Amino acid sequence: MSTTAQEILGSSNSTSMGYIENSTNTTTLASSWLPRDFDTSTGIKTASILLLFIVSLPGNFLLVAVLLKNANKRMRTPSNYFILSMACGDILLTVYSMPQFGILTAYRFRWLVGGVAGEVLCRISFFVGEYSVLVSTGSLLAIALDRLFLVFYPLGRKTTLRTAKYAIAVIWLSSTIFALPSLRLFNTVEIGPGYLLCMVEFKLIYFAIFYLLFCFSILIALPLLITIALYIAIGIKLNRTKRPGNQLPSNRERREQMNHKILTMLVTVVAVLIICRFPLIVGMLSCFSGSREMCSEADFIFTGWFLTYANSPINPWIYFIFNAQFRHGAKLLLMKIFPCCFKALNEVSDVESVGVYVEMEALK
Fold this sequence. Notes:
Elements: E1 3-4, H1 5-9, H2 23-31, H3 40-69, H4 78-106, H5 115-152, H6 161-179, H7 182-185, E2 186-192, E3 195-200, H8 205-240, H9 251-288, H10 292-296, H11 298-322, H12 324-337, H13 343-362
Parallel strand pairs: 1-2
Antiparallel strand pairs: 2-3
Helix pairs in contact: 3-4, 3-11, 3-12, 4-5, 4-6, 4-11, 5-6, 5-8, 5-9, 8-9, 9-11, 11-12, 12-13
């Protein structure tokens, strides 16, 4: 059975976190969520979520297919395994959470499923979102560490594929463990006759704040800060590396150029991750710290979640834009699937294959 807002708050003057003070505040909070006509703004929001889904699903599936196909037999590197891990997390978010988010937006966040099934789906909804964020953050940190070892210790012991697989297993397992508390925090709350929301249970508000603070500071913010610091160190190292004067590019110089390209790509991924992930987390913490306006404003909730979901379709296209290997692999796959549409690409395929091969040789 879903919990009603009045049952949670009762007639007492509850002061949980300063913004749930009495039944009057509850009515004010709920009023902004009550049904309204489907207006132009809602239509635009719903269409924008559909666009995210359309861009994200093929992009991430294509990225996974390129890595698994391994067309040039040189794609199976530790860094690419971590990229594969991130793409799988984005697919999970795209397939489960995005359609649900679109439906919630169309119905002004009204939870359409009641009863036990509604409660279960509500809990799983936030769990999947949190799980994907943790997987992406952990995978991004693993990529940065792998690049650090390659740049600072090029002749040392490199990360093996077996080590990468173990690291990915740890990332997914630990993400599962740390995301599990979210299954308890969320539930369906009835704010009007037959009108349900999927939200944090008010009686668990203190635990929710502690959990969100822990996730933000330890599980998300700290790894991101470490990742950024690693990229800065890599950039300084690459800029200080001496290059031959007027000589032809050596294998070492080609490797350094490739490191610069990869570094640019990964820094872009980090910037996108921060822009897309931080607003929702900071907003939720502000909300639970006493900002009633933010909690009761549906547009703010939409913007935070929209930016979070926008990270999933952006990630794969960053790799296709910055990395010639991924572009080459994608073209080969698309030529096989749609041969009639990619005849022109056949003429440059062999030339590009040579270029990709030279780049990979430079990284050895």
